[in-house]
Structure formats: structure tokens, C-alpha cells
Amino acid sequence: MNITIAGAGAMGSRFGLMLHEAGNQVVFVDGWKDHVDAINKNGLQVNHDGVEKVVKIPAYLQDQVPSDFKSDLIILFTKSLGLEGMLHSLKDTIDKDTRVLCLLNGFGHDEKIKKYVPEENIYIGNTMWTSDLEGPGKVKLMGWGTVNFKNWVPGHEESAHEIAKVLSDAGLGAEYTENILEVMYKKICLNATLNCMCALLECNAADFGDTSTAHTILTDIITEFAAVAKAEGVNLDAQEAIHFIETKAYNRETLGLHYPSMHQDLIQNNRLTEIDSINGAIAKKGRKYGIPTPYSNLVTNLIHAKEELRKAK
Amino acid sequence: MNITIAGAGAMGSRFGLMLHEAGNQVVFVDGWKDHVDAINKNGLQVNHDGVEKVVKIPAYLQDQVPSDFKSDLIILFTKSLGLEGMLHSLKDTIDKDTRVLCLLNGFGHDEKIKKYVPEENIYIGNTMWTSDLEGPGKVKLMGWGTVNFKNWVPGHEESAHEIAKVLSDAGLGAEYTENILEVMYKKICLNATLNCMCALLECNAADFGDTSTAHTILTDIITEFAAVAKAEGVNLDAQEAIHFIETKAYNRETLGLHYPSMHQDLIQNNRLTEIDSINGAIAKKGRKYGIPTPYSNLVTNLIHAKEELRKAK
């Protein structure tokens, strides 16, 4: 299958590599010039579960994608703030046969994608894989993950299953997931609590987890998310989501010393965050359904204030 | 009048000095040994609106107050976290004739005071005076202010007026204030928004005011305060309180470059904050009256998390 990885950061590089190794024709598109140049010059340098390798995969700079370039599948892996720019760059390459799979964190991406892609070609979901971009053209891949998604418009289940098979054949553990919103809500709980708190309080997951108010903060935010989910007909088990975070994310032996991506963005790199696709998206849904979302409002507003105070870009 | 200033920090020193200069017998009691020693050895060194002076006022270290020591009036000016310890130190000096005026920031101090003082001897209010403690035994007093308070138990208005006269005779601009809760709610709005946000986001008032989300954050918190005030029969005009902060506190020519006291406590000096007497007290009142206080809850929990992460003491 001809596959474009739109956003070849840590996660995009992993997907591109694994799909390439499974025999697909993969192309990277990314907005970071040094990264694209390094991939084209030296190949993608990978440490894959301890094995070093160099893989030749063509890469285009985002605004230099040839207009006659076509792909069967575009996998969107930008940061949420880069999504619209990426779609704009690819718009001439998207036709009625181009399927687009969005695996970005958070909610609300469909509104942007719909402007560029016919709804029946959109597939939405998320992934539990991880990876680290260590520098231009260089990634480190460890561990194991899954991908869950479904077709955005009913009637395209067969096509979703076909895409899932391509991903799973590449070892990406993809599954067509009927209740995709439930899976996405579960994942967003982690982003909306730990990610935000570690950025706001400038700490790692374990140190946040050690505070006496962490449990209440998690409970308040996730209970609010569950109310919004319910209004969408999605069953989010707040207790289970809280338990998952408290037993997995704080452990100093495993993930606890990790600084979540929003900390990396805002504190380490002074970059704007994805807050509007996470807590901000829940606040927006809340307004739509008439569900009060004070915790999401305040967290979103505090992160935006902090972005501005740090002059994040 | 024999007056004990219980808590001889910046504000206590101002009140003690002005009451002493008006002819009252003033004694300081404080928990900071260097400060007490400096006052006793060298006198209180004051810069009062640009005039330097040294004033001899006796000072006791908090746990060395003689048990036969008596005063007509104790003015409480500790930090809220130091209040109970101070009352405990003074308990043997408090009898049925000792009136106690509490001018601490925030709410909820009455619960502690009632354990040590008969309710009919309690007077509660606040002050808009400012002052700076520049070091042990050294204060800088500038500007002008007011004091508002009333008797805690009805029927003691005459005594409240008498205390107000003593303070006003000393130039402290004191007023018996029937709707004292309204005045206290107005003042707490500033502490609950600007103080907390500057501590949480580690910025000054003007920089916080410049963020695009400051107005919404203020509005959300103060609207919640107004709902709790209403349940107590107090009319807090949220719009007026917001307008006051936005027009006075952000101005870079006057107060805007100021780092509020919670920033001084938590960020500059790694001390525990008074959050439980401010946003925490409103959350507690909310639970009592069945008013949801999500904004107060989250701000309180975030500040406590930050105290713990910084190992504040």
C-alpha cells in the first residue's frame, strides 16, 4: 500500500518504519527541515528495542510535496497545532480514493480534517505505542503497543478492517474498534490530568502522584470527563481510569520518572501545547451538551496563561 | 489602653508603632527570635513615609510570654498557619476582660479563636493598610489605609466602637462596619485570584493581567465566591470586584510589578501558604451551604500540590 506518514516525529517514524519493513511504499512528510534533510541524506537512524539500524525512506518537507504525489492512505501524526497546516500542504494530493487515518491525541481533529477530506474517507482512533525522537533523523523505539480506530462514517467498516490488517501485518497491533470513543476517552484521561499537572507544576509523574491532592485533582477532572462522555452516549468508567493512572503512571520503576509530552512541549521546549484538543476539547463538548466543565475550563486557561507567560511558540 | 500585638510582622509592627505613638501601652509578641531580639536590643527601626525613626516597644518571644501578663486588647496579626500556635501561647493571659481583634486575611479564623476566647470578646475584620518587613526589627511603612471590623456576637457594638476609636485616634482609620462580611468578601477576591495565580504561575500581577485568560479565570473564581456569599446572605458584586482588580492591581505604574504575598511565601521563601483561609475557606463554606466550588477546589489543591513539590515549610 502507498502510505504517507504526515508528521514524521517520534510516533510517525515508528509507524513509517514498521510499515516500510512490512513491504509498504512509505513516504514521510514533515515540517522540520533538519529532520527531513537528515532522513534523506543518511536514512532514518533507528534504535529498535536495542537493535541499531538505518532505513532509507523518502521524506518530503511539508511545503515541498509534489502535487502529483498520491497515496492510498495518509496517517496523520502531527501535533494538534500542526494538523491544519499539514492538511493544507497535502490538499492537492488528496483525492476521492485517499483514505486518511487520524491518530492524534485528543478530540476535535475531525472538524479540521473534514475541511480537506471527504467524510467517508476519514478514519479516527488512537495508539498506545510510544517512541522518542532523539534528534534530526534519529528515533528510539521501545516496548509494545496497540492501535484502535474506526471509520468516521458508517458503512465503511470493510475499508477500516482492511487498513487495520495492513497495520497489524506490520506488527502494529491494530484493531477495528466499534466503541472507539470509549477508548479515546480513556486515553484522554491520562493526557488531561497527568500531562497538564506535570506541565503546570513542572514535575514528573511520580512526584505529582506523591502529592496529597493528586487523587482529588484526578477524580475531579475525570468525573467531569465522564459526565461529558455520558452526554455523548459513551461509558467512561471514571474509577477505572483513575485506578489505571495511579497504578501505572506513578511507578518510579517504570513510567514515574517520565516527564509527559506537555511538560516536554511547554517547559523543556517552550512550545505551545495541545491543551485545546484535550481539556479544551472537553470544555467545548461540555458547552455543546450543556454540561458544566469548570475543571477543564480552569486547567485550559491556566495552561494558556502559562504558555503566554513563557512566550511559548 | 494595654494592647498586645500578636504577630509583629510587617502589619503588626505598623499597628503597634502607631498605637504606641498615640499613647497606648503596646507590647509585641512574635515567634521569630531574631526579630524579637532586635526590637528589644535596638528598638523597632522604622521608615515611616520616608521618615526614619527608632521606637522602643517591648517584645516577647511567643513561647516566653509571662503568664501574669494581661492586656485589654489583643490584635491578632499572625499568618493564618501561625494563628493557633499564637493563641495557645497567649492562652494564660486571656481572661474574661481581654478583647481579641482578628485582622488576618481570609475566613475561618473564628473557629480557632473560639477555642481560646469567649465569643463575646471576639472582634473580626480586616485592613487595607500595607507595610514591609525589611529584616529583623526593621519595617518600612508607606501610604494610607483603613480598618473595618465588628463584634462577633451581637450586643457588643459599643465595645467595638470603643476599640475603633482607639485605633482611629492612632491614625489607623478604623470603622465599625455592620456589613463586615461584605468587606471581607471583597478583599478575599483579590487574595483568591491574583495571589494564587501569581504563586501558581510564578509571575507578577501585571504579567498575569496581560494573559488572554486572566479575565476568565478571575470571573470564574469570583462568580463562585459570589454564589457562596449569597448563601451567607452577603451581597458580593462580582463585576465590581473584577473591575477593581483589573483597574488597580495590574497597573505597571502602581501595583502591577508587585509579587503578591502568596508568591513571596511560596516561591520566594518556600513557606506554606494561607490558601486554606482563602480559596480553601470558600470551598469549605460551599460544602456547608451545598454550593459547588470547583474553581476553589482546584486552586486550593494545586497550591497544596505545589507546596509539597517545593517542600515548603
TrEMBL record, chains A, B:
Pathway annotation from the record: Cofactor biosynthesis; (R)-pantothenate biosynthesis; (R)-pantoate from 3-methyl-2-oxobutanoate: step 2/2
Cellular component aspect of the GO annotation: cytoplasm
All residue ranges annotated as the Ketopantoate reductase N-terminal domain in the record: 3-152
SUPFAM superfamilies associated with the record: 6-phosphogluconate dehydrogenase C-terminal domain-like, NAD(P)-binding Rossmann-fold domains
InterPro entries linked: 6-PGluconate_DH-like_C_sf, 6PGD_dom2, ApbA, Ketopantoate_reductase, KPA_reductase, KPR_N, NAD(P)-bd_dom_sf
Listed Pfam families: ApbA, ApbA_C
Ketopantoate reductase C-terminal domain: residues covered: 179-307
GO MF entry, a single one: 2-dehydropantoate 2-reductase activity
EC number of this enzyme: 1.1.1.169
Assigned keywords, A-Z: NADP, Oxidoreductase, Pantothenate biosynthesis
Catalytically driven reaction(s): (R)-pantoate + NADP(+) = 2-dehydropantoate + NADPH + H(+)
A GO BP entry: pantothenate biosynthetic process
NCBIfam families given in the database record: apbA_panE, PRK06522.1-2
Role of this protein: Catalyzes the NADPH-dependent reduction of ketopantoate into pantoic acid.
Family statement: Belongs to the ketopantoate reductase family.
Name of the protein described by the UniProt record: 2-dehydropantoate 2-reductase
